[in-house]
Amino acid sequence: MSTGWREQEYKRRDVGGLCEYALTIQFDNDRNKVTSIVTRLTGAAAQMGWLGEEARLYVGVALEEALLNAVIHGNLEVSSALREADDDAFERLIKLRQEDPRYNQRLVTVEMSSCREEMSWCIRDEGPGFNVARIPDPRSADRVGLQSGRGVLMMRTFMDEVAFNPRGNEVTMTKRRKSVPSDVMDVIAEAIAEMPGELALGR
After folding, report:
1. Smallest Cα–Cα separation from 101: which of 124, 70, 76?
2. Which CATH superfamily is domain 5-193 in?
3. Looking at residue 72, what DSSP letter applies?
4. How many other CB atoms are found less than 10 A from the CB of residue 191?
5. Distance CA 108, CA 91 (A)
6. Nearest-CA neighbor of 35 among 4, 63, 75?
7. Helix (H) or strand (E) holding 61
8. Mean pLDDT over the full length of the chain
């Protein structure tokens, strides 16, 4: 895979216009590609015509969190706990794993499917997986000041449904046409943004 990114697209139309859309993207462990892939996915979602600008923004946040999880914590197996260290251990280990053939041959696969009523994104990595039930609540008193651990919370906040497979290396996120009103989403988004520490880029 020369570019580290390949995709396959499917569209079906009826008399009412585009009624079904699917897009599969597979990419390597270059996290710098994540922003471009999120833009590609949200742009594809816009083709259905019912996901507004604000909703696409929220979907983009959830997708970015899930994709970074897949690359960093899934395929490269770098723990978010290293982010709390005072040195650059987190970044150093990412760089080392990207050069290690035991990790750098793994791929991330995104399968998007959409219709007039809902959209879903299935993101799968080739790592060992994790137990989502063991993720501590980042809003608890002993974790609210930490920089990491908010990724899954963000995904669950901005999507209508988030489900992990038993192994924990695949997440499916769904957005439905009738969802939470945007003003409610704005309040939730502002509350998360005001939490101390940097926005977590992972589990």
Report:
1. 76
2. Histidine kinase-like ATPase, C-terminal domain (3.30.565.10)
3. I
4. 11
5. 20
6. 63
7. helix 53-68
8. 85
